[in-house]
Design a protein that fits this description.
Length: about 120
């Protein structure tokens, strides 16, 4: 965090204070790659945001490197569902639960055919 704060100061940004590590994954190799999601607070505005970081830990006496440190994109909020009362033009009819979408029925039929082939091979 200290290295990132130094970079932010040089770029005219505010210092960050670590609040919480949300998630950390590691890929074992030499170097070890840590993928970290964290919450940090801007010490001036007190705004808390999520950040993503990729940290490579080096073997031996070499210094660890932060390859990525960025603000995490906030997920977009889905638009509200339509409240129209007219029938939809979709292949899937909501009012008829027995009717299945073409893509889903194809998948089910394909899966059924695969099972039948496996049974024939076994017998």
């Amino acid at each position: 965090m200290e290295d990132q704060n130094e970079k932010r100061k040089k770029e005219g940004g505010n210092e960050l204070r670590l609040k919480e590590v949300i998630k950390c994954n590691v890929r074992a190799a030499c170097p070890l790659n840590y993928y970290i999601t964290l919450k940090a607070e801007d010490v001036v505005t007190l705004e808390v945001d999520e950040y993503e970081a990729l940290v490579m830990t080096r073997c031996g006496n070499q210094k660890d490197e932060v390859h990525i440190f960025r603000k995490k994109n906030k997920p977009t909020i889905n638009p509200p569902a339509s409240t129209e009362l007219e029938p939809s033009n979709s292949d899937c009819a909501v009012e008829d639960p027995d009717k299945i979408c073409d893509s889903r029925s194809w998948d089910r039929g394909e899966t059924r055919r695969r099972r039948q082939r496996r049974r024939r091979r076994r017998s």
